């Protein structure tokens, strides 16, 4: 006995027959992994030789869904998973202080308190990311609701803030989750039908930039730096069109990365140094993005 995948005019699907496994006789032959259809054979699909096929599927599934959802362009928001809502940061700092007060000579507790203090100071960026995304989403909804859609890595911290801002504005946002040992679960503010999970960083990065019209980067660590520099490299080498790359928090970024030293050492050109801009306020960031495309349209 077989059953067919249903189809309709809006989403045509070829009428291939798929085995109804419950209807099969229970024999040594039907229980054999070799008898299992390739599409339903997880062990087969996860073989090393099938990696190119998995790459293709991981590229194609989010692409088709975004097409079906009418997503035309996106604004990418990157930033640390470790910068929480200010209220949470305040509670974490108080717990660290209480623990240190109980054992003032404990070096590890002192380090934990100092780290909590620094994260508390940076928690203002959570609110900035939230406000920027709310502003960008409101502007999108007032114009073309399928353009300038916020996209994040869908995790906690700055990513949560950005998805939250879009949610609170009444708009959609995209989350590109990645399977890793920690911080792998999507936050509650990602639009469910636009929440994707990736195995491969390379494919995830490609989807970040396929529809991007701007990159907005908040303080972060290795992952944020990786994504920032890959984007700058792609623009520098003309593998992608120029777009606004905005770094929130000049003081943070100039302390973490000596961009001017790269220029002085001849490692980058002046034009490369000008591929990004520092910003400190959501309104400033949105104004730069809007001006960039207003000017591009005029040309």
Tell me briefly what this model is.
By secondary structure, the protein is an alpha/beta fold.
What does the secondary structure layout of this molecule look like, with pairings?
Blueprint: E1 2-4, E2 17-19, H1 28-31, H2 42-45, H3 51-68, E3 74-78, H4 86-102, H5 107-122, H6 124-142, E4 149-152, H7 158-168, E5 173-178, E6 195-198, H8 201-210, E7 212-217, H9 222-236, E8 245-248, H10 250-256, H11 259-264, H12 270-273, E9 277-279, H13 282-298
Parallel strand pairs: 3-4, 3-7, 4-5, 5-6, 7-8, 8-9
Antiparallel strand pairs: 1-2
Describe this structure in words.
The chain has 299 residues and is α/β, with parallel strands linked by helices. The protein folds into 2 domains: 73-83 and 124-298, Rossmann fold, CATH 3.40.50; 89-122, no CATH class. It is 49% helix and 13% strand. It has 13 helices and 9 strands. It has helices at 28-31, 42-45, 51-68, 86-102, 107-122, 124-142, 158-168, 201-210, 222-236, 250-256, 259-264, 270-273, 282-298, and strands at residues 2-4, 17-19, 74-78, 149-152, 173-178, 195-198, 212-217, 245-248, 277-279. The protein has a 7-stranded parallel sheet with strand order 6-5-4-3-7-8-9, sandwiched between helices. Helix 4 runs antiparallel to helix 5. The longest helix has 19 residues, at 124-142. The relative contact order is 0.11.
């Amino acid at each position: 006995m077989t059953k067919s995948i249903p189809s309709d005019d809006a989403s045509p699907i070829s009428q291939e027959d798929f085995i109804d496994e419950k209807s099969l006789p229970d024999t040594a032959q039907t229980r054999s992994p070799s008898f299992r259809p390739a599409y339903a054979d997880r062990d087969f699909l996860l073989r090393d030789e099938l990696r190119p096929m998995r790459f293709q599927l991981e590229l194609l599934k989010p692409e088709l869904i975004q097409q079906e959802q009418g997503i035309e362009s996106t604004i990418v928001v990157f930033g640390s998973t470790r910068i929480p809502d200010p209220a949470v940061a305040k509670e974490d700092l108080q717990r660290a202080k209480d623990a240190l007060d109980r054992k003032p000579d404990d070096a590890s507790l002192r380090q934990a308190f100092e780290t909590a203090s620094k994260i508390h100071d940076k928690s203002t960026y959570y609110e900035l990311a939230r406000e920027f995304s709310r502003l960008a989403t409101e502007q999108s909804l007032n114009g073309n609701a399928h353009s300038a859609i916020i996209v994040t890595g869908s995790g906690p911290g700055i990513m949560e803030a950005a998805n939250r801002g879009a949610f609170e504005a009444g708009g959609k946002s995209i989350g590109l989750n990645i399977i890793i040992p920690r911080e792998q679960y999507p936050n509650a503010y990602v639009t469910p039908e636009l929440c994707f999970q990736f195995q491969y960083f390379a494919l995830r990065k490609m989807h970040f930039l396929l529809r991007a019209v701007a990159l907005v980067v908040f303080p972060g660590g290795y992952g944020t730096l990786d994504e920032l520099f890959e984007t700058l490299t792609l623009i520098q080498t003309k593998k992608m069109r120029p777009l606004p790359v905005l770094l929130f928090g000049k003081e943070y970024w100039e302390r973490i990365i000596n961009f001017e030293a790269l220029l002085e050492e001849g490692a980058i050109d002046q034009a490369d140094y000008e591929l990004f801009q520092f910003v400190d306020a959501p309104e400033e960031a949105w104004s730069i993005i809007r001006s960039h495309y207003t000017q591009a349209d005029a040309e």
